[in-house]
Amino acid sequence: MTVSVLLDTSFLISLVDRNRVNHNTAALYYKLLLEQQTPIYFSSIVAAEIAIKQPITDLPLKNFRTIPFNIPHSIESARLWNLLGTRDDGDSRSVIRDDIKIMAQASHETIPFILTEDASTLYKYCERLRTSGNLNVRAIKLADGFDYSAFRLDGQKDFDCFVS
């Protein structure tokens, strides 16, 4: 599996809004992706979510590879939705449905990482599906801070993160 990344809506909002708590972390990840020439994917699902509040042309679209939502993604979405089982109390069905669609696109397109600020649904459900062996995609949440080794396929951390 080649290292590539799918960007979630919350990541992109943090990237373009300097007032967001995780803006600096998003900017560091974005800079790393560009420096490493990592393929960066932009979902049509994310485009629809962003467009509700701001024009998608506010984003650096020339640096992204766009992924339309297609039939194979729909099939993978349904599979993941059924494997997920019950949602946690208070989690919006429509929000989770879009998060599952984004995960399905990453899975079908063999994109191993999703960058997100959304710890409450996307990260949580992605991890639930991944640790149960039903998804081969790992969500990286901005709240954990910048980690240079975040995109290692084996999950190993750099030594520097253990030394203070």
Tell me what the structure shows.
There is one protein chain. The protein has 164 residues and is of the alpha/beta class. The chain is built from six helices and five strands, in the order E-H-H-E-H-E-H-H-E-H-E. The protein has helices spanning 9-16, 23-35, 44-51, 71-84, 93-108, 119-131, and strands spanning 5-7, 40-43, 65-67, 113-116, 138-141. Strands 3-2-1-4-5 form a five-stranded parallel sheet. Helix 3 links the parallel strand 2 (40-43) and strand 3.
Helix content: 40-55%
Sheet-strand content, in percent, reads 5-15%
Determine the number of helices (DSSP H or I, runs of at least 4 residues).
6
Helix-strand string: EHHEHEHHEHE
pLDDT averaged residue by residue: 91
Cross-sheet strand order for the largest sheet: 3-2-1-4-5
Unreliable runs? none
In total, the number of strands is: 5
Overall geometry comes to globular
Distance between the termini: 32 Å
Question: Biggest sheet: strands, sense, closure?
Answer: 5 strands, parallel
Radius of gyration computed on alpha carbons: 15 Å
> Would you tell me the structural class of the helices and strands?
alpha/beta
What keywords describe this structure?
11% strand, alpha/beta, single chain, 6 helices, 164 residues
